Structure prediction request, 326 residues.
Amino acid sequence: MTALTAPAPTPAPAPHLLRWLIRLHRPALYIWAALLVVTAATLLWLGGPLTDDAAAAWREYRACQTPQCAYDQDAIILYKDVYNYATIAVLAIPFLIAAWAGASLIGRELENGTDRLAWTQSVSPARWLAAKLAAPAVLVTAGTGLLVLLHHLAWSTGEGKIDTAKPWHDSATFFAGGPVTVALALTGLLVGALAGLVLRRSLAALGAGAVAVAGLWFAVWQALPHLWPTASRLSSLRDGPSLEGMAVDYGLVTSSGDRIADPGCGGTIIPECRPVMERLDATAYYTDFHPASHYWPLQLTATAIVLVVAAAATLIAFRLVRHRTG
Prediction:
């Protein structure tokens, strides 16, 4: 007689991770879409009608030959306000992404234990983490890239037409209009996720992710002038140091060619400064700076450094998950 054996239990089918991710984070997806639409529309408005109106107002102002002239001052002020608000909106994205990734994407799931529910349904921890990061990374990169491109186009449309337009080396303009902010947003996602894995608490991970992005941003901002070889220019003692582009260093040059610190008396155009310059044996001012042609080398070098940090955060996150789950 043959003994009957019970059939082996069938493993639970693996859930469709993308659908699961969208269902869990649908509110965040709606907010992200709304932020993109509103900010993109604002930047298109800024680079189109607002720039045209402000440029026309500046032309009227420059053509003015009398003390009392009529020009559209409101158009100039509106352009300036909208530019500042749109720039702040673009620059805030890496912080928002890091806070969301730490608190909601990873931290809350580990806090509530829903990560282990997924792992019991034929989803390995590494696959779970990869699914968590891949789709948001695509959305963050594409969305932030679009806004950065529109900001750069809006800024460049007003360059040379609007007297109060920000120069290319203005810190906020430089970051908001270049790929380094796209890299910071992507790194914010990965650093926030890593904070969620380490802290396993949503609120703590929210703060840690945002602080980590702030620290990385500050480090890049401080290192930026030194990421590419500078150009140098000499100017006379009467004219003072040349203030062009992104200034890195300036001072005095002596008759022997040595560089010394500027005493800050203002140049030989000021009579009291002449004996000071003679005593220092100064012959000219020197200025080390980045001209406009260094814009893309600085952007791309800073972007590469930030992406290295993103890659390191990704590697640490996967190793951490592997270590904890054996």
The mean pLDDT is 91. The CA atoms of residues 105 and 193 lie 7 Å apart.
